[in-house]
Amino acid sequence: MPRASDAPRASERVHAALRDEILGGALAPGAAVPSERALAKRFGVHRQSVREALKRLEQAGLVRISHGGATRVLDWRDSGGLEILADLADAGGREPPAELARSIIEMRASIGIDAARLCVERAGEAELAEVNRLAGEAAAHVGGPVETLEERYAAMWRTVVIGSGNLAYRLAFNSLLRALPSRPEMADAVRPSEAEAIRAFGAAVRARDGGAAASCARELLAPG
Amino acid sequence: MPRASDAPRASERVHAALRDEILGGALAPGAAVPSERALAKRFGVHRQSVREALKRLEQAGLVRISHGGATRVLDWRDSGGLEILADLADAGGREPPAELARSIIEMRASIGIDAARLCVERAGEAELAEVNRLAGEAAAHVGGPVETLEERYAAMWRTVVIGSGNLAYRLAFNSLLRALPSRPEMADAVRPSEAEAIRAFGAAVRARDGGAAASCARELLAPG
DNA sequence: AAGGGATAACTGGTCCGACCAGTGTGTGCT
DNA sequence: AGCACACACTGGTCGGACCAGTTATCCCTT
Question: What's the rounded Cα separation, in Å, for the pair A122 and A167?
């Protein structure tokens, strides 16, 4: 069993370092990123690896590269897409923005409740039955190993979001889900604690009761 | 005045071509992307340019690159983040998914209404006044040049979203906004038509009337 | 003939060094 | 002082080489 090399790839190291400097504020918006040649020397890698890292940062909306001119740092709050949430949660040893967890939980609730409503409206019988089945599965694992519970619970919501027929909700769901793993305290906060609430939600969806589904969803996602 | 070269960069050409093939379904999920060397030959560019394009696709969640193995196409519906919306709207001459416009409008409403509610709750007096001022500006341009109206209207919502103190809403707002330009019919659909509704919204926010702000926001974002 | 391990032929990852292509700037001429 | 040009940056691309991990094949062993 040959172990995979633990050494992070060169371009990955550069990407992570620059990403953290930008998200952490060490590289402020408007500032010029050092030249590719300078970065290559600093990190002890070839310029091509630096370029790959910068291309990824540009794709994520963290920097703007311009031929001939300097590469400048953008304000990720203005130019970043939702996928940056995962980077914010992940980034190095740095503390993520204080409002990050609350933001994710609020958005999850807003989208989840509306997706439930739309799912009831638009999804086919088979999909509604599947949601109900997955709700039962998730409910059965409340109190059990958190890993299994989280997996089933996520699968249920995934089916709801798909059933809503809303592409944007589906993509946002991906972005939100990806931000959870690196912050255990956030995963804790979104984990359901009452099996009955999950079952009630599944039943409401199954019965195509939009009002009940929405209110059960609110119960699950935004208690209190 | 030396004109900027109109020739798209090599890595940009490759990126756009592969992105369109993936989003258009020509490269199905699970399929293997041709090797970097093969792509370099096909597009008549250096392998490094291909790599930069692939790195961007990986960053966006469209492919998974693995050392030694083939680069495989992912299902962007499952692995893509919200920023893909812009690519879906943009992509080449291809027709975007039928539900795209509806999805964006629905998500915009869901987030906008909740952001209005939170903004009233959390924003400072200065920010609320600014929202109201921008609402007035936008309202004054209803019926005028669409470009100016869109700019002011977007500025107003931007302030609301910032005032909501929700990072996820702010990033999602960026992603949604970026998808509009390439689809004029979508920009049309989200443009406000009644100055009075905008003014009412601004006044409700200014007065910290959460209920009124939410209902005015609903009026603006999800009429009917 | 079937199983298993060495190996060859892929894949992506990195490096070197060079040159092209835009920008910006300083300098010297007018 | 004002302007134009050369030079010194920046990023963009190229060619070729080699390293590293995977995968499939083929031959040897059982």
Answer: 13
Interatomic separation, CA of residue A93 and C1' of nucleotide C23, rounded (Å): 37
Mean pLDDT by 10 residues, chain A (224 residues): 67 97 96 98 98 98 97 98 94 82 96 97 96 96 91 97 98 96 89 93 96 95 82
> Tokens in use for B104?
């964006």
Return chain B residues 51..80 having CB < 7 Å to nucleic acid strand C.
51, 54, 65-71
pTM for the model stands at 0.93
List pLDDT tens digits, range B112-122: 999 999 999 99
Q: Does residue A53 sit in the same domain as residue A106?
A: no
Is B53 within a domain? yes
What total number of domains does chain B contain? Answer: 2
Q: Residues of A near B (CB-CB distance < 8 A)?
A: 11, 48, 51-52, 55-56, 58-61, 67, 77-85, 88, 97, 99-100, 102-104, 106-107, 110-111, 114, 118, 165-172, 174-176, 178
d(CA B81, CA B83): 5
Q: Which domain holds residue B183?
A: 100-221
Asked if A106 lies within 8 A of B168 by C-beta distance, the reply is: yes
Residues A135 and A164: their CA atoms lie apart, in Å, by: 16
**φ/ψ of residue B155, rounded to 5:** -60, -40
Q: Do B116 and B59 lie in a common domain?
A: no
Burial of B131 (0-12, 13-18, 19+ CB in 10 A): buried
Find where tokens 């500025």 sit.
B155
